Amino acid sequence: xxxxxxxxxxxxxxxxxxxxxxxxxxxxxxxxxxxxxxxxxxxxxxxxxxxxxxxxxxxxxxxxxxxxxxxxxxxxxxxxxxxxxxxxxxxxxxxxxxxxxxxxxxxxx
Length: 109
What we know:
2 domains, LysR family transcriptional regulator substrate-binding protein, HTH-type_LysR_regulators, LysR_subst-bd
């Protein structure tokens, strides 16, 4: 991704912290295009696990094991709006999903 994306900035900071400087041959803004290039054997990419279809047989997702490699994601809602059933269901689902993901990641360290 281009350096305008927070994930790219985050990745660059992490690489720098471990003494590695990635050499980017291509910078794209579309995650699906990046994954398609990787799928076709045209390179490798730092990609959040949540954006990769783990059942894709031509892509191998490797986890970086480092206890200090974290990312914070927020969920915002309007302070004065009435919460609809569907919006509350989404908030509940997102909360449960990330709790489950956090629990699974703690087991790998």
